[in-house]
């Protein structure tokens, strides 16, 4: 070969040699780059909150990772690589790595409402992370219906019924279970009055409330005792980012007057929220009489939060209230109930041992006093004027750890409870120590979510109880989600059921507690599903059955030496509640429509009779709209129907007196209620809003429907100012 040809070939080979050398130096093809540790975050697109246990896959290498409780993940990838992100309840997303700290935002499927709920160990999760039936009422709906107390809104939901406890209390029934079998919480902690048996959900204000969570079905695995029918959790709002001032005044018929003020701000690492409110009415919750009836409540709620580091946070929450109720006892006397109390907790949480830990200490005090008078103010020392006082504390330590596709919650809680009730309980006081341990595994397997959990509770007063649960949710497609849950719940016997001692000489009877009482227990099964043909429309249905045994009731034990009839609390009753709940939603831009219907069958299995005041049919239609004819104009209207319900009589001679205590069996029917409520709101300026509305527009007052008040018109003025842009 000539020198000229060799030289020409050498020139032709030079580009190829250079390319090979570059490939050797770069370690591969020219377009590839060295893989680095990518630490990203997966968030919900609409709410910006972390997505737990999302699967992040790198198609090029097959590498996989899972997000932790903060939504973070780590995977070896290069800029330009593709990532496939999947999470139950969200649409799958394919994205390209553009930095070492990518932020991925997922779009929620319409089969699960984009809401949050509190679960085991006070951990807040998305509804998509639970196979339970959960309803969440947000601040917007609270404002839309001008609900000043929790019962005013909860009674409008299908499947929930308001049950009176005259003269001064009302409760919410869930799936046929009454007040002592529905656990009511504020920020995950029990409301005051349960130890004294003075439960009144109408006492709970909605000031500073962010949302109300309603979990249906036994929830003892998550929350412990009393959650046979379900749980109502009132969640307070967090401090705002910018300085915000808020004031509200409202006045209406039936003596309705209310006002509240609030301030909130976050400065650097410290955030605070302080709210105070006052309300009164010429009606007492659960009592329909007119004349001397009166109710007034003062509320104070505070929340302080401090970021100890970029990962550890401290929270201090305190609240207090004072209430007076007045109602006629007979033609000559008025009865007075004074309640006052306070509660609070301190909490610290942050990452530890590869997971997240939460420690919380809670304390509560509550005082109840009943007096009488012929006038409008009580007389000192009158009637049963000795104060009853309750005190309880709870100390929680919980831990959450994500291991692959498993989100594991474990924890322990220690509680102490004390009741001081002179002449009401044996020895005038009673104490209890409770120890609880719990654990649950939430396993995400593709489109399937499975949960298995259990809680063991041990009490120095009544013994122990172990309660398991199992749930499954299956996202069969982007439009259909199926769910099922099996759980055991329990209700511990109360202080007065175990240690009660009461004699009514005029009535000729004595009622005694029973230290041998066992906890009530229930097994529940539910099956349901959601179909969402589009982002605008969804349909939900769920069937359930609860079988309850060991219900505490009183039983005639004979006459004592004084000739008084003696009754004693015993575990004798059995009951079954079953039904079907349906719900449809339409969100068409400025208009939102919800329609729900529930069927309930609740029976006492011992007597074969239905449970008293449980309506078989309830329904609700709500239409909310933002109007374009006037900026800031919105309306909200709802129609609530509760069918007639049986009234079951109490046998003659029982230790309860009243208009229905002379015969057993069904002695009457509570009339059906059709209530129409409506409200109009108008933003006059950016800071000022006026509103007006009506409750019970048709002035429905059915026969024997105790909580049904007359038609009520009201008007309100709200001012809100913030430095936020």
TrEMBL record:
Its GO CC terms are: cell outer membrane
Question: Listed GO molecular functions?
Answer: siderophore uptake transmembrane transporter activity
Grouped into one coarse class, the protein's main location is: membrane
Read off the InterPro entries from this record: Beta-barrel_TonB, Beta-barrel_TonB_sf, CarboxyPept-like_regulatory, Plug_dom, Plug_dom_sf, TonB-dep_rcpt-like
So which domain of life are we looking at?
Bacteria
User: Which BP terms does GO give this entry?
Assistant: siderophore transmembrane transport
Swiss-Prot/TrEMBL keywords: Cell outer membrane, Membrane, Receptor, Signal, TonB box, Transmembrane, Transmembrane beta strand, Transport
Q: Please give, as recorded in its UniProt entry, the membrane topology of this protein.
A: Multi-pass membrane protein
Fetch the Pfam families from UniProt. Answer: Plug, TonB_dep_Rec_b-barrel
Q: Tell me the first and last residues of the signal peptide.
A: 1-32
Domain named TonB-dependent receptor plug: residues: 128-231
Compartments, as annotated in UniProt: Cell outer membrane
TonB-dependent receptor-like beta-barrel domain span? 271-697
Q: Which family does it belong to?
A: Belongs to the TonB-dependent receptor family.
Name of the featured protein = TonB-dependent receptor
The species this protein was found in: Gemmatimonas groenlandica
């Amino acid at each position: 070969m000539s020198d000229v040809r060799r030289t020409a070939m050498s020139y032709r080979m030079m580009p190829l040699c250079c390319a090979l050398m570059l490939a050797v130096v770069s370690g591969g093809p020219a377009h590839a780059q060295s893989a680095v540790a990518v630490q990203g975050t997966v968030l919900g697109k609409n709410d910006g909150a972390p997505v737990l246990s999302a699967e992040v896959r790198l198609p090029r290498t097959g590498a996989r990772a899972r997000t932790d409780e903060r939504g973070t993940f780590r995977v070896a990838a290069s800029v330009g690589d593709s990532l496939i992100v999947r999470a139950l309840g969200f649409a799958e997303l394919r994205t390209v790595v553009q930095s070492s700290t990518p932020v991925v935002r997922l779009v929620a499927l319409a089969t699960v409402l984009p809401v949050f709920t509190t679960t085991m160990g006070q951990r807040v999760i998305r509804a998509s992370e639970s196979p339970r039936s959960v309803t969440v009422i947000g601040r917007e709906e609270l404002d839309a219906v001008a609900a000043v107390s929790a019962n005013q809104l909860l009674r409008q939901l299908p499947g929930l019924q308001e049950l009176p406890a005259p003269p001064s209390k009302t409760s919410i029934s869930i799936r046929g279970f009454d007040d002592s079998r529905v656990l009511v919480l504020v920020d995950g902690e029990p409301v005051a009055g349960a130890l004294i048996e003075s439960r009144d959900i109408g006492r709970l204000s909605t000031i500073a409330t962010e949302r109300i969570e309603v979990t249906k079905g036994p929830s003892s695995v998550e929350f412990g005792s009393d959650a046979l029918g379900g749980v109502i959790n009132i969640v307070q709002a967090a401090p705002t980012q910018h300085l915000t001032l808020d004031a509200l005044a409202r006045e209406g018929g039936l003596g309705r007057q209310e006002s509240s003020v609030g301030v909130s701000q976050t400065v650097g690492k410290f955030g605070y929220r302080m709210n105070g409110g006052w309300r009164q009415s010429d009606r007492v919750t659960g009592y329909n009489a007119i004349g001397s009836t009166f109710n007034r409540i003062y509320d104070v709620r505070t929340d302080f939060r401090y970021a100890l580091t970029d990962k550890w946070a401290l929270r201090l929450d305190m609240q207090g209230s004072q209430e007076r109720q007045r109602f006629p006892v007979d033609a000559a006397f008025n009865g007075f109930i004074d309640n006052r109390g306070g509660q609070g907790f301190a909490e610290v949480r942050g990452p530890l041992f590869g997971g997240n830990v939460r420690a919380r200490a809670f304390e509560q005090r509550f005082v109840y006093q009943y007096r009488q008078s012929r006038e409008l103010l009580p007389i000192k020392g009158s009637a049963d004027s000795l104060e009853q006082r309750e005190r309880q504390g709870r100390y929680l330590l919980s831990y959450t750890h994500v291991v692959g596709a498993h989100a594991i919650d474990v924890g322990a809680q220690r509680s102490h409870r004390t009741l001081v009730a002179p002449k009401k309980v044996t020895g005038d006081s009673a104490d209890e120590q409770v120890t609880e341990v719990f654990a649950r595994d939430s396993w995400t397997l593709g489109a399937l979510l499975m949960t298995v959990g259990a809680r063991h509770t041990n009490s120095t007063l009544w013994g122990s109880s172990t309660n398991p649960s199992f749930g499954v949710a299956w996202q069969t497609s982007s439009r259909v989600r199926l769910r099922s849950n099996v759980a055991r719940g329990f209700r511990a016997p109360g202080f007065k059921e175990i240690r009660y001692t009461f004699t009514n000489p005029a009535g000729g009877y004595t009622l005694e507690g029973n230290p041998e009482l066992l906890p009530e227990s229930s097994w529940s099964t539910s099956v349901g599903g959601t179909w969402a043909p589009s982002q605008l429309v969804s349909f939900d249905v769920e069937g359930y059955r609860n079988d309850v045994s060991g219900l505490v009731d009183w039983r005639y034990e004979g006459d004592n030496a004084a000739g008084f009839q003696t009754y004693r609390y015993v575990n004798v009753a059995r009951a079954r509640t079953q039904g079907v709940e349906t719900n449809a939603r339409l969100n068409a831009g400025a208009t939102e429509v919800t329609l729900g219907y529930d069927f309930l069958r609740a029976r006492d299995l011992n007597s074969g009779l239905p449970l008293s005041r449980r309506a078989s049919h309830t329904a609700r239609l709500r239409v909310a709209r933002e109007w374009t004819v006037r900026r800031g104009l919105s309306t909200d209207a709802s129609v609530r129907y509760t069918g007639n319900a049986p009234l079951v009589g109490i046998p003659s001679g029982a230790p309860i007196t009243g208009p229905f205590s002379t015969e057993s069996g069904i002695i009457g029917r509570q009339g059906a209620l059709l209530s129409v409520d409506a409200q109009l709101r108008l933003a006059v300026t950016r800071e000022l809003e006026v509103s007006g509305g009506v409750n019970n527009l048709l002035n429905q007052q059915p026969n024997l429907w105790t909580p049904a008040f007359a038609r009520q018109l009201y008007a309100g003025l709200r001012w809100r100012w913030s430095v936020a842009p």
